[in-house]
Amino acid sequence: MVLVTGAEEIIDERGCELMIVRVNRCSGHCLSFTFPNPITGKTSVHAKCCRMTDTEWVSSN
């Protein structure tokens, strides 16, 4: 099971206004496996991982 979780990050850079932003990230595990492919004679890899499909850019004033 893969979950997308959110966390708050503090941006504290010298000369800039202190800002707290919410960052989404993936947590959990990815289903993946590797096997010798008798058709190609090579190793085949199958993997499914969490990936972001939506993004939102925010600006600060």
TrEMBL record:
InterPro entries the record matches: Cystine-knot_cytokine, DAN_dom
Entries under Pfam families matching the protein: DAN (PF03045)
Source taxon at top rank: Eukaryota
Segments traversing the membrane: none
Cellular component GO terms, alphabetical: extracellular region
Compartments reported by the entry: Secreted
UniProt-recorded name of the protein: DAN domain-containing protein
Species this chain originates from: Haemonchus placei
